[in-house]
C-alpha cells in the first residue's frame, strides 16, 4: 500500500510539478478569558464565536486597518467545527509565531475569508507582526 502511495505521489509530481507552497509560519494567539462588553461594561467570557483560551490562527493584515480586525480561524464555540471569522484583535492574547502542521488549518488559511486571502510569506514577517502587536499593547 505504501509503495502504491509513493508511486501516485511521483505521478502527481511528474504531472503537476513539485508543490510550491507559501510559508507554513502563521500568527497564532488565544482568545481572552474575559473582556468588557457594551456601555454597561458587562464582563463576558471568550468571544461570540470562540471559547476562552481557544487557539486561533490569523492571516496577515488584509485591509490596512493596523490589525484592528483580524481574519482568524479556529474551532467554534458551539459546533466544535473549524470556522473562519473577522474579529477584533483586542479579543486575542498571547500572540506568537508558529509553524502550521494541521492540514485543516493550512487549508482554511489558504482559502481565506470572502476574497481576503493574503498569506504570510516568511517567519520574519510573522515575528515582526508579533513585535508590533506587543508595542501596541495588544499582546497578553
Unreliable residue runs? none
Structural class: alpha+beta
Strand arrangement, largest sheet? 6-5-4-1-7
Q: How many strands appear in the DSSP assignment?
A: 7
**What is the percentage of strand-forming residues?**
25-35%
What is the averaged pLDDT score? 83
How many distinct folded domains?
Answer: 1
Please count the helical segments.
Answer: 3
Largest sheet: 5 strands, antiparallel
- Categorize the overall geometry: elongated
Oligomer: single chain
* Helix-strand pattern: HEEEEEEEHH
Cα-atom Rg, whole angstroms? 18 Å
Separation of the first and last Cα atoms: 48 Å
Helix content: 25-40%
Question: Your description of this structure?
Answer:
This protein has 140 residues and is an alpha+beta fold. The chain has one domain. Helix content is 27%, strand content 29%. The protein has three helices and seven strands; from the N terminus they run H-E-E-E-E-E-E-E-H-H. The strands form two sheets. It has a five-stranded antiparallel sheet, sandwiched between helices. The protein has a two-stranded antiparallel ribbon with strand order 2-3.
